[in-house]
Amino acid sequence: MEKRFTYRSLDYCNLGLIEYGIAWDIQKEIFDLRLQNKINDVLLLLEHPHTYTLGKVADKNNLISSADYLKRNNISVYEIDRGGDITYHGPGQIVGYPIINLKNWKQDTHLYLRALEEVIILTCKAFGIDAGRNPKYTGVWINDRKIAAIGVKVSRWITMHGFAFNVNTDLSYFNGIIPCGIKDKEVTSLEKELKQKLIIDEVKRTVLEKFVEVFGYDAYNKKEIEELKSILVQ
């Protein structure tokens, strides 16, 4: 029997710096539209203001910041519905939210996590950094230093949440938490490894290219925020 060819297209939107709660609401709306098959798969790339997020199985004791520390540093805290423990989001960190239908790719959450890791590993390689996996922990590592955290939600084979990739991140904010509940490992960033700041949009372009490659899309369409909003209100 001849194998059927399915054309797969990705819509990409660069949301810039956006408050966590607003981005979460956008994710939920896009999820509903994708579930109804009204839109293509979507990849959102963005940055957040200073934020700590706790996954649904997070140990709240891993938030070691005092209320005063949170207030002085203007850090928001969200308890959310992804997997994983606690992590930090902030300026200089690329956050990726793929809202994609795994039925059109591979119906395997484990392989999905490995594919997200591969996107970041290939991006690091493009910038001359040899990154890889740690068999004990999800995420992307450079030796014992974590450069990207991953936490997802998959419902009816549609994905939400995603990855947090440290590029020019101020790593001092990780001191307010026990990142991902791991006490004996460091966090790092592209800036720290390369000893220079990077242009965020250049790194985003590489992340996008590697995402398209790893997930086997035939094409992608760039969407401005205004276009995305018009999709949401249709």
How would you summarize the topology of this molecule?
Layout: E1 9-17, H1 20-35, E2 41-47, E3 51-54, H2 67-72, E4 76-79, E5 86-89, E6 93-99, H3 109-126, E7 132-134, E8 137-142, E9 145-155, E10 158-166, E11 186-187, H4 190-194, H5 200-214, E12 219-223, H6 225-233
Parallel strand pairs: 1-2, 1-12, 3-4, 9-11
Antiparallel strand pairs: 2-6, 3-5, 6-10, 7-8, 8-9, 9-10
In words, what does this structure look like?
It is globular and about 50 Å long. The protein has helices at 20-35, 67-72, 109-126, 190-194, 200-214, 225-233, and strands at residues 9-17, 41-47, 51-54, 76-79, 86-89, 93-99, 132-134, 137-142, 145-155, 158-166, 186-187, 219-223. The protein has a single domain (9-219), classed as Bira Bifunctional Protein, Domain 2 (BirA Bifunctional Protein, domain 2, 2-Layer Sandwich), CATH 3.30.930.10. Helix 2 links the parallel strand 3 and strand 4. The termini are far apart. The strands form two sheets. Strands 1, 2, 6, 7, 8, 9, 10, 11 and 12 form a nine-stranded mixed beta sheet that branches. It is an alpha/beta fold and 234 residues long. The mean pLDDT is 90. The protein has six helices and twelve strands. 38% of the residues are buried. Helix 3 (109-126) packs across helix 5 (200-214).
